[in-house]
Amino acid sequence: MRSESESVIDGPPMTQQGDGSDRRLVLPEPYLLFLGDTCLVTDLKTAFGLRDWAPEKCIGQYRMSEHTTSIGLADMGFGAALAAGAKSLLIGVASAGGAIPKSWWPHLCSAAHAGLSIISGMHDPLRCVPNLSEIAAESGCSLVDIRHWQPEHSVGTGIRRQGRRLLTVGTDCAIGKKYTALAISKAMGQAGMKATFRATGQTGIMLAGAGVPIDSVISDFVSGAAESLSPDNVSDHWDIIEGQGTLFHPAYAAVSLGLLHGSQPDLIVLCHDHRRKEIDGFPGFLVPTPLEAIDLNLSLARLTNSQVRCAGISLNTSGLDDESRRSLFRSLEDDLGYACFDPIVTGVGKVLEQLA
Amino acid sequence: MRSESESVIDGPPMTQQGDGSDRRLVLPEPYLLFLGDTCLVTDLKTAFGLRDWAPEKCIGQYRMSEHTTSIGLADMGFGAALAAGAKSLLIGVASAGGAIPKSWWPHLCSAAHAGLSIISGMHDPLRCVPNLSEIAAESGCSLVDIRHWQPEHSVGTGIRRQGRRLLTVGTDCAIGKKYTALAISKAMGQAGMKATFRATGQTGIMLAGAGVPIDSVISDFVSGAAESLSPDNVSDHWDIIEGQGTLFHPAYAAVSLGLLHGSQPDLIVLCHDHRRKEIDGFPGFLVPTPLEAIDLNLSLARLTNSQVRCAGISLNTSGLDDESRRSLFRSLEDDLGYACFDPIVTGVGKVLEQLA
């Protein structure tokens, strides 16, 4: 993870749906980041991600005690955060199991009582915290459960939209699809291009302040929800869409396919980790080769965009020295004919060249 | 539609999940069929389907007046139906829009008051009928909204299950996937083979008395729900699984793919209508050729069952005379090498030969 001082989330305001509705989940921002009583850095990846990728949305941090790990933002109480403009207390902890610990309850209730909305990506819905719903209703603030949100239902139409779209796809889950999309959006913004990061998972939605948690959508509406996420736009605007799962996943391929069809990408970027042999957590299911993954994604994407093509392969090469990385890139580029890059080490310039 | 005197739904009792739970929707049966005040035969297709395919589940019919169209069952009041063993009043009407008319309200309330559960496939949930929830709770009967049901969540595992599986797939929606699966199950039962029809849509679930409305499942759990639908079984037992949608559909391909992966079919049967050129309701999206559809389904199905193959093509040839049908079948069989049949006209013998 690297620390950045600018947001990658900016872009021109989104055109609304034809019917005037916005079917995305939109979060009340900016945020006070809730770190709870967490001492494990790894449990704070949501908070670190927000600090690094969307610092302008983060007013400060709230720690239950001095023993809580700090992420380096200003410590603030609820009143001070409100005075500084915060709209929400955002739970920045992603612990295994996704339960909301009892020790947090009084703090969440105090925040709502003070007037902060609560944003949670935990498995436990916020309404399970005793009295919290009533307190939030009294203060007129909202409880936002990203995992449990459902959009207004609309099935896909397949109708082409104006503007351009890039979707990151992968050979597995957790292989760099969000990171790559964020890096591309950021670089495009810095280059003065019109680009908007479109979030499809909970961390991405917290970063962007809006999005569609695509794996929570009822299956009949997956491609429709993906269509809503990147609506009509000006013709030189790019939506950079965070991919999910992989078409080669025995559990999640349906989500990946609905997102692919609804996104109607002009370009895909494949995210791959050359060290991974099996789908994470699914022994016996092999990670496809980059070429297999590109071919299947392009072949299925043509249903809704016959002009789709692949703009390159994003690799995590953190285990390699410079020479080994160059050698890996050269061999993949020679064999496959697609640009290879590591968004952290080499940047995403090879993708941007193809967007001009 | 043809009239049959036997059920096709029988089969050995289903093995439960490893954790002992049944994640299917199970309906209280037998049924009294509610025909409301409907005068249009086409709006009664659910009722006719039940009468024809699952007559042993149908105790009688309930008409709001003599002007309601009859489907030829015994007219019965709620008390008489209960005395005859009925457990549910099943709404046999499928009208456009799926709203529950106000004129039905007192009849539904009376049925619940008398002690009948109510089964509905309408878009309006039954709880929207004033007082109905309270009345049902008092009488201890249930309100079952097939469209709004959610299973216990479980993601797919990709783990192979014992027993064999056949899935009907299609080149479009509404092209014979349910009918073909029912016809194959029925013929297998008559031939003394072990077969169970597995329903994935609301009419199929009403016929079978159980199933998973797969397009209502949250996308993350589609293949997991499909796995639950056809659990481990004895090795010579066949699950004949009702397909949904098509991989070539801009709105619903995700549902089709999740069902395909979770079903892990040993055999697919492709349902096709040679007269249809475009995906129904999606102008510009072409119906694939049978070979394209078979190839893509087999290619994607191999992820969870490397041995999958195609057992034939089910065609609706109702517009053709005998000579034209024979000619169509011969040309498809010569070109593609797959058995062609029309389940209504020629029966499904060509499929059964491949199951022995």
UniProtKB/TrEMBL annotation, chains A, B:
Region (Disordered) residue spans: 1-23
Residue span, D-glutamate N-acetyltransferase-like N-terminal domain: 80-148
SUPFAM superfamilies cross-referenced by the UniProt entry: P-loop containing nucleoside triphosphate hydrolases
Ranges of residues in domain D-glutamate N-acetyltransferase-like C-terminal: 156-351
Domain of life where this protein originates: Bacteria
Protein's UniProt name: EBNA-1 nuclear protein
Source organism of the structure: Hyphomonas oceanitis SCH89
